[in-house]
Amino acid sequence: MSKSEANCLCGAVKIIAEEISPKFTVCHCKSCRAWGGAPFFAVQCGTKVEIEGNEKVKMYDSSSWASRGFCTECGTHLFFRFKESGEYNMPVGLFPNLEGLEMSMQYFSDQRPSYYCFANTTKEMTKAEIMTHFASQL
Ligand SMILES: [Zn+2]
Ligand SMILES: [Zn+2]
User: Distance, CA 71 to ligand 1 centroid (Å)?
Assistant: First the structure.
């Protein structure tokens, strides 16, 4: 767990996350790929997150259980936030100084299109496995 700071491309939004896990996850789901044009590489930031420039953050209600936030000036994707727990997942690329990063999980592995794959050896979960595993939280 480490503390780290991030800025959107234009600098209007600054994020300070107190507890980031260096074990990041990759999500291949259709929503994530449509959102960013590629799978979503996310670090878990918990709830100890401070956001400066909040008036430039627009939240999009992407599902019944989570919202996605982005900068209204430059469009940088800032976070995926679970409504129930308030926990943030943020793009790993936002944080320039994270150490010990390790790809630990690939979610929605069954929705990964055939035109790419990663050589990293990680755990994987299909949509069905995710729905079962997180049923209590969603
Ligand atoms: Zn911005
Ligand atoms: Zn996803």
Answer: 5
Q: What is the pLDDT of residues 39-88, one digit of tens each?
A: 999 999 999 999 999 999 999 999 998 999 999 999 999 999 999 999 99
Q: Kind and range of the H or E element at 129?
A: helix 127-133
Residues 78-108: tens digit of each pLDDT = 999 999 999 999 999 999 989 999 999 999 9
For the chain, the C-alpha Rg in angstroms (whole number) is 15
Distance 69 CA to ligand 1 centre (A): 11
Domains in the chain: ranges and CATH = 2-133 (2.170.150.70)
DSSP 3-54: EEEEE-SSSS-EEEEEEE-SEEEEE--HHHHHHHSS-EEEEEEES-EEEE-G
Q: Which ligand is nearest to the CA of 65?
A: 2
User: How far is the centre of ligand 2, averaged over its atoms, from the C-alpha of 65 (Å)?
Assistant: 12
Q: Are strands 49-52 and 14-20 parallel, antiparallel or unpaired?
A: antiparallel
